[in-house]
Design goal:
106 residues, mainly alpha, Multidrug-efflux Transporter Regulator, Chain: A, Domain 2, 2 domains, three-stranded antiparallel sheet, 7% strand, transcription, repressor
């Protein structure tokens, strides 16, 4: 039995619905994809599919763009956040291992 993906991360929403929810144009949404700020999946027919998490990310991106932040700066910020998140997860797992097995690893 596999681990179920959280509903917020399931890529099931079409670009038309994303457009309606965000107020962004198709072109803006595709541009953010081209700039590697969001990562929709493609259906068998080639349509883009987005998640609720993608929609939240698009809203944050749009706000930053409106505030004058450049897309390359947003991408750098996202990369830093991912790096910090991975470090936090590693630290949490190490803490759980230490608690479970009474070991310490530098």
């Amino acid at each position: 039995m596999g681990i179920e993906e959280p509903y917020k991360d399931k890529k099931v929403i079409t670009i038309g619905v994303v457009r309606e929810l965000t107020g962004l144009s198709d072109r803006q949404i595709r541009y953010y994809e081209e700039r590697k700020l969001i990562f929709p999946v493609r259906s068998k027919g080639g349509s883009r599919k987005y998640s609720f998490s993608d929609i939240e990310q698009l809203m944050l991106i749009a706000d930053k763009i409106e505030d004058g932040v450049q897309t390359h700066e947003i991408r750098q910020e996202l990369a830093r956040e991912i790096k910090h998140h991975k470090a936090d997860v590693r630290s949490m797992i190490q803490g759980q291992l230490n608690a479970q097995f009474g070991t310490r690893r530098p």
